[in-house]
Amino acid sequence: MKTKLAILLLLTAAALTGCGSDNNGNNTDKSNNASSQPVNGQAAAPSKAPKKLSAAENVALDYVNIFLNGSDEEAKKTFIQDHVYPDAQPLFQLAQAIETPDDHKLKDPQVIESADYSKEDNMKVEAVLIQGEEGNNPQSELIVFITDKKVLMASNSSDEESFGQARSAFKTPVPETSQAANKPSEKDMLREIKSFVIDDLWNDAFVEISWYIHSGTSSTGESIDINFTVQQLGKTMEKKKEYDTYMSGLGTEYDSVKSVWAKLSGESDRLYALIQQHPPKANDSSSDYDASILNQYTDAFEKEVDALTE
To answer: Which of 62, 75, 80, 148 could form a disulfide with 20 if both were Cys (CB 3.0 to 4.6 A apart)?
Structure first.
């Protein structure tokens, strides 16, 4: 757990100049405090007192204000030295020169709740839930993990599985606005599908099977468990069905990439059916297996997605 949750966030986030306080969020000018000013001759109702933060919550808020949102590299460096768990510092140091794009900064951060998360290797971990405005999401959420008053890692909803598991430790319901805003954009989904095609469908499956049939080895010349490869391909083809549904639901502005996907999907179905009918054999010169057309469609799909998303 020590690094997996952190790295996705750290490599896309950087620091904000600032320091922690005993109050939630940013301090305001006391001279502008409306609670002390009369309104129409009557004293305004006193504002709600800010939440008193624990030491761990202050450190978590500092992580957002100093490290996630800002651009002062010296402030980030000091934060890492003083407030990041030693084993996690190398990861944070990799990210300290990266500035978070404005639409991904967590603005007006507020500590919502803290919870005991887990103990591993006799390490007590406290999870701190923070909400703020990110892009078009007024209640984006971030979980910062603290041990011994130092930041161990942080996670947001981009890592759905890990974040979801940690989010269940809190009593506060997930905001509806956060759930809606966290839905991947069409461009993000196309990038995801492109990675699936290149890595899972092509490189890990059809390429390996082709090499095995024609040379008796994997694509790197090593031994390969071809039965396991075919089993994994079956799971990949099940996942492809989900993407088939998604692609068919895209609007007319995506007609070009949808057309290429239809060819790619159909050709992969044909090859998979051939594999099921005639299980791959090493050095089989009589095999009708030929992935050249699928390779052509894979290249075309990659170019279509890149043109739409870059």
So the answer is: 62
Q: How many Å from the N-terminal Cα to the C-terminal Cα in the chain?
A: 33
Query: pLDDT tens digits for 228-268?
Result: 999 999 999 999 999 999 999 999 999 999 999 999 999 99
Over the stretch 38-64, which tens digit does the pLDDT of each residue have?
444 444 444 555 679 999 999 999 999
